[in-house]
Amino acid sequence: MSLFKTILLNLLLVCIAQNVLAQSGKVFDNLSMDSEILQGKRKYAIYLPPDYESSERSYPVLYLLHGAGDDQTGWVQFGEVLHITDEAIKAGKATSMIIVMPDANTGRRGYFNQIDGDWNYEDYIFEELIPHVEEKYRIKKEKRYRAVAGLSMGGGGSFMYALHHPELFAAAAPLSAYIGPLTLDQMTSRMSNLEDYSDEALKDYFEQHNALSLIEKMDTKSLSSIKWYIDCGDDDFLYEGNSLIHIAMRKKEIPHEFRIRNGGHTWTYWRESLPSVLEFVSQSFHQ
What we know:
Helix content: 40-55%
Number of helices: 11
Strand content: 15-25%
Shape: globular
CATH class: Alpha Beta
Largest sheet: 8 strands, mixed
Low-confidence stretches: 13-18
């Protein structure tokens, strides 16, 4: 083989290798930021799409919330977010996007502000984490390019974040969502030291953290400004809350997708859900 052909072959192999590498996104699962609200460092993980380093464009963002017992690495380790998202983008079913996965299991567990005001995790998300990542990474900051999704406890967080801030999210995709106590009595029976709070304060906290109450009270225009994708397995122990949400939305004529598939409260189910979630939020980004 001539020197010229050898050089051409080597160049071709380099191009092929670079193209293969370019097809993979990257995940960083041990990032952290300082939080004044939570008084310490908070971890998060992030997925960057395959073309992030080779372009100068900005990207839509999906905030992807883990369930109870996991942390920011849950969707990375068990949800296979890197492989599944890469494949969805490669197949043209999902647009290139950035995925942010916060840690809601360090110090205390959960996505909400506590009733005593001592642990304001939701304030941290909206006042610190979202501004932090949307400044550090090339993320589009308009409502139409922002979505939230999550499983179980994170599904409940997805409902609350979208319902509390419909002006910020184009789409929400709760999976096997734990929507919290279905009644005020259920809430009070599960919480301690409630003698410090009036009946009015307890009722107000419940109604502000109960998806059914919020859907009932919110105006149809705000609710309909979000594209909803609700998914729960037919063997999932959280089927009741998800079904009641579906019924409440139907009664108010809120457009939404409601999926009941074969399966339970498992990572197998959620891994199968993720491609559909990515496709759904991608369509909302392109509306």
